[in-house]
Amino acid sequence: MTTLSLLEHNLRGDLFESTGVGSLAVLSIDANKGILKEAYYYMPSLSSFIKIAQMFNIEKAVVATREGSVS
């Protein structure tokens, strides 16, 4: 299983069995206060997650281009 495959899977069945959803849920927890972070403080984590996903997609496209599987 590649890292990119974690982002490409369909969300079927129990939503909380998704690695991506679980990771985002953990990032939203404020351990010091024992509550979920306010949206304002959670946005940098979400932005980082999205940027990493974009970078994985770029890497996938570069590899596919090098292998000649993209026209």
Folded structure, characterized:
By secondary structure, the protein is mainly alpha-helical. The chain has one domain (3-66). Helix content is 61%, strand content 6%. It has 3 helices and 2 strands; from the N terminus they run ααββα. It has helices at 3-8, 19-27, 39-66; strands at 29-30, 35-36. A two-stranded antiparallel sheet has the order 1-2. The longest helix is centred in the last third of the chain and has 28 residues, at 39-66. It is elongated and about 50 Å long. The model has no long low-confidence stretch (mean pLDDT 78).
Shape: elongated
Low-confidence stretches: none
- Beta-strand residue percentage: 5-15%
Overall mean pLDDT: 78
What topology, given as strand order, has the largest sheet? 1-2
In helices, the fraction of residues equals 55-70%
Total tally of structural domains: 1
Q: Give the topology string: H per helix, E per strand.
A: HHEEH
Distance between the amino and carboxyl termini? 25 Å
DSSP summary, beta strand count: 2
Please report the number of helical segments.
3
Radius of gyration: 16 Å
Q: How would a crystallographer describe the biggest sheet?
A: 2 strands, antiparallel
